Amino acid sequence: MNSLWKVWFSKRRRIYLQIARKYRTTPWRVYHLGHGGFSKNKKDIKILEELQQYGVISQIYPW
Q1: Does residue 59 register a pLDDT over 80?
Q2: Which of 18, 20, 39, 61 could form a disulfide with 44 if both were Cys (CB 3.0 to 4.6 A apart)?
Q3: Which of 14, 63, 58, 53 is nearest to 31 (CA)?
Q4: Rounded Cα gap, residues 33 and 26, in angstroms
Q5: Cα(9)–Cα(38) distance, rounded to whole angstroms?
Q6: Between helices 42-54 and 27-34, what is the axis angle to 10°?
Q7: CA 24 to CA 58: how far, in whole Å?
Q8: Chain mean position to CA 46
């Protein structure tokens, strides 16, 4: 529930929603990946790359 409020009141909420719609996932998953969550599949890696393009994250770590 705590992450719900963090996404909802984030100043980057529109970016999270836009990316979530594009990749058919939840904004909470996009937020989680952008704040240090581990990617589990290729879709998550594409989400991370797009977050990097928007400037939300600075780099993607290979582990």
Answers
A1: yes
A2: 39
A3: 14
A4: 11
A5: 23
A6: 70
A7: 24
A8: 10
